[in-house]
Amino acid sequence: MIDARLSEPQAIASTCPYCGTGCGVLARTNTSGVVTVAGDPQHPTNLGRLCVKGAALAETVVPTGRLRFPARRVAGALQRLSWSDALDAVADGFRRIVDQHGPDAVAWYVSGQLLTEDYYVANKLVKGFVGTANIDTNSRLCMSSAVAGHKRAFGEDIVPVSYDDLEQAELVVLVGSNTAWCHPILFQRLLAARERNPAMKLVVIDPRRTATSEMADLHLPIRPGSDVWLFNGLLSYLHQHGVIDTAFVDAHTSGFARAQAIADNTAGDLRSVAAACKLDLGALTAFCQLFARSERVITAFSMGVNQSSSGTDKVNAIINCHLATGRIGKPGAGPFSITGQPNAMGGREVGGLSNMLAAHLDLDQPDHRARVQDFWQAPRIADQPGLKAVDLFDAIDAGRVKAVWIMATNPVVSLPDADKVKRALAKCELVVVSDVMADTDTTAFAHLLLPAQGWGEKDGTVTNSERCISRQRAFLPAIGEARPDWWALSEVARRWGFGAQFPYTSAHEIFDEHARLTASGNADAEAPRYLNLSGLVGLGASAYDALMPTRWPVAVDASPTPFADGRYYTPDRRARFVPTAPQAPAGRVDDDYPLVLNTGRVRDHWHTMTRTGLSARLATHVAEPFVDLHPQDALLCGVREQELARVSSRHGDCVLRVRLSGEMPRGSVFVPIHWSDRFASDARVGALVNPLVDPLSGEPEFKHTPVKVEPFAVAWHGFALSRSDDAAELVADAAWWTRIAGDGCSRHELAGRRSDGDWPTRARAMLGVSAADADWLEYEDVAAGVFRAAHLVDGRLQACLHVSPRPDLPSRAWLSSLFGKAQLEPADRIGLLIGEPPARSEDAGATVCACFGVGRKTIEAAIRAGAETPAELGKQLSCGTNCGSCVPELKGLIAEIRARQRVT
Amino acid sequence: MKQRLVVIGNGMSAIRTVEELLKLDGDQHQITVFGAEPHGNYNRILLSPVLAGEKRFEDIVTHDRAWYAKHGILLYTGNPVVAIDRARRVVTALDGLQVPYDRLLIATGSKPFIIPVPGHQLPGVIAFRDIHDVEAMLDAARSHRHAVVIGGGLLGLEAANGLLRQGMTVTVVHVMDRLMERQLDQSAAKLLKAALEQRGMRFLLEADTAEIIGDGRATAVRFNDGSEVAADLVVMAVGIRPNVDLARAAGLHVERAIVVDDNLQTVTDPRVYAVGECVQHRKHVYGLVAPLWEQARVCAAHLAGFGHRRYGGSVTATRLKVTGIDLYSAGDFIGGTDSEDLVLRDRARGVYKRLVLRGNRIIGVVLYGDVADGPWYFELMQQRRDIGGLRQRLLFGRAYCEPALA
Fold first, then answer.
1. What is the ipTM of this complex?
2. pTM of the predicted structure, to 2 decimals
């Protein structure tokens, strides 16, 4: 008998590294090294639930593709270095440039993926010891408009709402947020709350029809970028209908009259607002009425608001409505910025943006600078805001910044005008990249590469969207020579002679220093900061290790609810109304670029896919980069569903699969952000995005770039599945490709322009099959241009290729499943070249529910057999009963099939 | 008064026509059958398995003497008709017997073609046509070792396979560059050759026989290039010739074979019918069994006085009767500039399939290794079905297409 306790490995609690929801996970590693990750029932955020991405975490903690040791690029090739030599090279390189050109000639570009401790050390090193504020972060692309809006309105970057508030609200307004896909667990909590309280209403404001809007009581498909008109209109409506909380406004705010006047002048009647926002007047009125009568209202917003040339104004237009009605600082009410990254908030707390100092202390205040410099015992302190992300890479391009250290982010993919980022990095004197992955679009430009620890290896804290600090704990040994980022930074500091100020030996020491800085001078009743971790000072190693999820502030007498006392963190302790004059998006459509490009996430991928791209399960929901557009626009552009289209802006172009989902309004197209040059030939949407930014926050306008769409003609479409990862020959023959993780195989979607040459010969070259006696099967219809081949080794499927002039290729799902078989049965062998299981065996179709692997065809069959609700489907097939993120799709399928049945 | 029907020939097409006639009008005819061989009727197609030792002669007999007696048919075996007097409507047999007829059916079949090279009359040189030939080959196999089969067509390969199975070393000599060129394309022929070679058969392609050497019995075959192969048995299987001497002598119109119309009546004399391999219909002469069955049905209907059937010609399909080798071929499998090919190759499984299409219709089929769908393709070809909608599934067989058809 085996003792059951021995087979049950010790669970280590950690925090999911994906979105800003910040769910707790329990990771287990069994004796044979197999990792499993499950939701942590104890974590207050998710109480055990996980979304698809979180549930697939174990599939991504694999050594595949990892950067294992420090390296230098010599004549294009990577040459291994010792850590010591690598750090010498980094330290010498930066010092030389600083000595010659001054501290502003160097920069750091870091990430919301960093832990708070890494972030803290980076920020300290740069602002206090290099003496520049040239440290910016990919959070600039994500929520810097929210930060700027918060600072303008509240005097401090404070998110005044918690997840519990969401559940107590009567009305939740989601603005520019596909929460269902991007923050699934949060959305599930919201839906569960509405289930319990049917009086609760959900309004979704989004130009697109999304999985989120599907579940809304009211969807306002707003004209892209017209949010300020809408919220000015709302403010004006509230004023006209006597919903203003005058007592609150008088006692706790300033600037109402001016903000209201601007609102009245620009959006004083709903009819004009409806026209400006391209909304149905009835729906708009209904929204205003709902908002007016809901005392407990939360307006939650994400990238649709932030990623705009007027993002900060959008944030303030929203906050204005809450201040005007006094719906802030109370349970179930307030404006709520939902962040995209796991530690965007932690970065903000330590000051990891180029216009911040540290611990919510300000760069432009001499006394703050003096306090921080003194606290750090720093030789100098940055006194000017540094370069914000887009400007930073412009400065590199212009040669003003000559050295950059990029940590945990992939700007060649994620920044706007991303081809320019490529050009800039190509001519930068010194590019240092710290990353977990060896081969990314950005590491390709690195002179020096430093291996970072991945999730599961590194140790520290992150803060989620509701100010909750959670531990990320290590449960795996580091891969290769990977070390913590704070260690690498401290080692460079030591080489510069600052060893005494960077004496860290473990994360808890850094956290403690950070906590002390938040407490420093914070007892001052005249100018307190809400960010205060004094209660966590002196935790010690074991208490830090055991730290339970904790929402800040953590200080004696600190109210857990921000602004509950009506006091804000401005000099006069009043909240400020900010007048917001509506502005159209900076990039205007014209005859040459007549469509508006919107960008965003898909459900099962994360950022540039360096991790989610490893999981076959996550690849099934949306396999390829696509451009979604309205069918009428497609007709005008001459592109057809499933075929390829070139989408181009004044900055660059992409080639993408055409999708007509029915979710797009006319005039808008949508392209997901995830695909990099590692995963597709021409799908880096960053190359398209205009580098126009919000003047205050510096956040780029990712949601509005004028583009045109044209057919991308190809001679053939195809796909290949292969056990081998070497796809050089495969993609060499193609004009366009996408790589997709498979289970036991890697998949390439292909399209090509060459129609010469015979396929049997080409296919062998593409799949690297040279032996004449190889076990090779092929099907050819020369006249129709159809070719299919498969290669077996010892009766096991090694690779297959399907080619057709049209994208009418067979389902990849069944063929992929054959890679799991040690021996193909004769029937499978026959099916190989048609891509279908032998007659009668089931093809479940594309996966809809990734948690239980339930396919579309299975679900459709159940609906035809009578299932009327997602719940019934769940009972029968389990679909949608775990993370629930496919429930909108289930609903959609039910509606679709019932509609079809009514027609026929 | 019963109609007198005389049948010249006791082979498969002759007796099938009689059977069809009996089905239609029972005892309206007084039937007399003359056969050159000393047996009842047997299935000539199954001679190969007999040679291969897989069947005995008794297994392939289809109609014994009792059957003829039961149906009141007069059967003369080993006594072929040697003359037809159409004016008097009388036939004369070898032994002088004369039988008058009202209707005459000629089903004399064909005879093997023997290349008239020097030595072709030596003992040990035989054809592969009837049970007598098979018995001669079986005899030779018991006492001799080296066989050469001249002719790499269907019949030659079946003979070679049989002799191999009987323990002889067998060399197949073929004048063309590939086997079964009238049924197979190059790819299928290669697969077939490889499969037969694996069984121990040897091949000499593009080999032109110059002489059969021997003193009292064949000992070797010599070729035009001077090379020789030892042979104490030489089987000539280079083709057949319609057996039309009798008809020609009777003044019937004969081109490559006896010319008949769509009723299988000779164009010369409405009282005289002809069926089988000795017949030329719409320029075609058939050497396979399926057309004979169709001809027999039509001919019998006309003899019975109904004339409700018409023969419009046949599309033929071939299967090789070599155990363990599946091969199916039909129609125009070579194609032309206006035709399109669907091809599937699976070397390891020994499968090759090819469909030749013209205007979305199947016009030819070659299947090797997996012939299960041959008849279905043949049916689609005969029905001239538009397969446009099935095109990319078609070669994977009926099972993959049925749902699409439904």
1. 0.81
2. 0.84
